[in-house]
Amino acid sequence: MTPYQTGDPIADRLALATDIAGAAAAVALDYFNRRDTLVIETKRDLQDVVSIADRNVEQLIRDRVAAYLPKDGFLGEEFGLTEGSSGFTWIVDPIDGTAPFVNGMPSWCVSIAAIRDGEPVIGVIAVPCTGEVYAAAKGMGATLDGRTLKLDPARTVQNGLTGIGSNSYVTPERVGEIFTGLLRMGGNPIRNGSGALMLAYVAAGKLVGYYEPYMHAWDCMAGYCLIQEAGGSVLPFPAVGESLRKGAPVLAAGPGARDDLWKLAGIS
């Protein structure tokens, strides 16, 4: 029996995800510290970049999961989907915030999640430049560096910061409408280049919410688990079958900001 096969499938995967996140963060930080030597490639557009760091960190995570839980499925941003038979699928973005990463900014992270029946049940986000580790599992709560996270309903759109995401899947006009609508509510928008990290900030109460009209599962599943376990709300993400590989709106909030942000997104 390995340390990750104790008979509790959720606790086992949380322990494994936390250990892997630490190893992946160390490798990613090493690449970050010598980023001037990396070859940077573009994908969909000039802002959508990837490097050998993304690929090698994802491969590390894939290999570690397969070594201990070979029947689990795995979906990563860089290498796609490997089907499994256990009922669990890992959802990973090896470096979320590659643009900040390659430009020498600290707002990037390693995002590791596991889902079962389309629901996120494990969420671990490691932030190499700060050493922070956000971790959650369904029914087990959420923590930041071991400290329990519980969202404060007194924090609202009007007295807090709200994360907003944008990318080339969404028109500039729509992004402008979102910023304008939030400002009219008395909100204060912020964007740091990593949707996964901003979702972790929602779970920790650093942001009162986050909205991005189009994201992929690897960007949001870990953050969704964290937010729900901390007492927040999320817009359900389609994560079953082919929809798992497609994008969808992502919306999350603490209890004091939920109604305003659902209104901002046009959701009743």
Characterise this structure:
With 268 residues, this protein is α+β, with helices and mostly antiparallel strands. It folds into two domains: 9-148, Fructose-1,6-Bisphosphatase, subunit A, domain 1 (Fructose-1,6-Bisphosphatase, Chain A, domain 1, 2-Layer Sandwich); 162-264, D-Maltodextrin-Binding Protein, domain 2 (3-Layer(aba) Sandwich). It has helices at 9-33, 52-68, 98-102, 172-184, 195-203, 217-229, 258-264, and strands at residues 41-42, 49-50, 73-76, 80-82, 88-96, 109-116, 119-127, 132-137, 141-144, 147-148, 162-164, 189-190, 209-215, 233-234, 248-253. The strands form three sheets. It has an eight-stranded mixed β-sheet with strand order 4-3-5-6-7-8-9-10, sandwiched between helices. Strands 12-11-13-15-14 form a five-stranded mixed β-sheet, sandwiched between helices. It has a two-stranded antiparallel ribbon with strand order 1-2. The N and C termini lie far apart (49 Å).
Shape descriptor: globular
CATH class membership of the largest domain: Alpha Beta
The major beta sheet can be summarized as: 8 strands, mixed
Number of folding domains? 2
Q: Name the poorly predicted regions.
A: 44-49
Overall pLDDT score = 92
Quaternary organization: single chain
How are strands sequenced across the largest beta sheet? Answer: 4-3-5-6-7-8-9-10
CATH architecture name of the largest domain: 2-Layer Sandwich
The count of strands amounts to 15
Kindly report how far apart the N and C termini lie: 49 Å
The percent range for strand residues is 25-35%
Q: What Rg is obtained from the alpha carbons, in whole angstroms? A: 17 Å
**SSE ordering:** HEEHEEEHEEEEEEHEHEHEEH
State the helicity in percent bands.
25-40%
- CATH superfamily membership of the largest domain, which one? Fructose-1,6-Bisphosphatase, subunit A, domain 1
Which secondary-structure class do the elements indicate?
alpha+beta
Number of helices: 7
Which fold name is given in CATH as the topology of the largest domain? Answer: Fructose-1,6-Bisphosphatase, Chain A, domain 1
